[in-house]
Amino acid sequence: MICLTTRALTAKLNPMSRFIFAALGALWVRGAAAQQVPARDLLDFPLGLSAEAAGLSSRMPAALWNPAATALPQAYHSEFGFAGLATPQDQGVQLDMVGASYRIRRVTAALSYVQADVSDIVRTESDPQSLGGEISYGTTMISGGAAASWGDVSLGAAARYRRGTLDAANRRALSVDGGLIVDHVARTPARISFSTFLFSPWNHAEATTYLIAGDAPVVRRDSTFELVAGYSWAQTESHGHDQYISANVTYRRFESGVGVLQTSYFGESARRVRLGLGLHYADYKLSLAREEGAGGFGSSYQFVFTRSVK
Prior knowledge:
Elements: E1 2-5, H1 6-10, E2 78-86, E3 93-104, E4 107-118, E5 121-124, E6 130-134, E7 137-150, E8 153-166, E9 169-182, E10 191-197, E11 209-221, E12 225-236, E13 240-251, E14 254-265, E15 268-281, E16 284-291, E17 300-309
Parallel strand pairs: 1-5
Antiparallel strand pairs: 2-3, 2-17, 3-4, 4-7, 5-6, 7-8, 8-9, 9-10, 10-11, 11-12, 12-13, 13-14, 14-15, 15-16, 16-17
């Protein structure tokens, strides 16, 4: 159970990368200037991913981290999926996502809905004694976009409407994101990507994340076995940056992966390991992932389930 003092609420909330909770159970607010729309921190969790780089992941329909990854291959006309992420009960973080995409000729249209919140934030004064009632901290986001591919190049764009809640305060913001994925760079099997997340230049209501990623197969044996190594870099305005190195193996219907994330947010550095497993059967895909916590906090666990339609 998380405790939040009324004195701290009127002062400042200290948003930490991926974990917004202090070890002693208090939350501190930096103020509206640092976070115009509350609960931006909750969208730093790797929702809809396994162990791959975020900017190149097409695992979840209506790809959250790169609109260009929404483009469906020619073999499929539509796709829908569900994703969920949770942390241990003492942190109480829960994220859910549903997404769908539909291809018309070379253009793929996509729509997604994300909900994230923290439970059991109890209102107190200067001691752990509850005053009654919980403090709301969460966000919802609706995204709609489109992507298309021309040869080895995929382009995508998405509009997002996000609403954040901190106790009685509710704020909203509109953002527009873009993405690019280039396959077979310099006639090699390598891929690179560039994308934005929550780009809102007109009112600075969001902290925009800029992502760059690349990967390439290291070992490939016909179509049954492949080992892919990847790297990604992300910079979030006024927060900090992170780097991610990954290795993913695909063998027939199975896949597994491991990645190491190095973060530097608000002057604090942390390193954590992410593990992922996946199973492909016919047009169904199921993925499970676990990412270590940092600073004494527990790990996060998530799943992604998708169905593709030819």
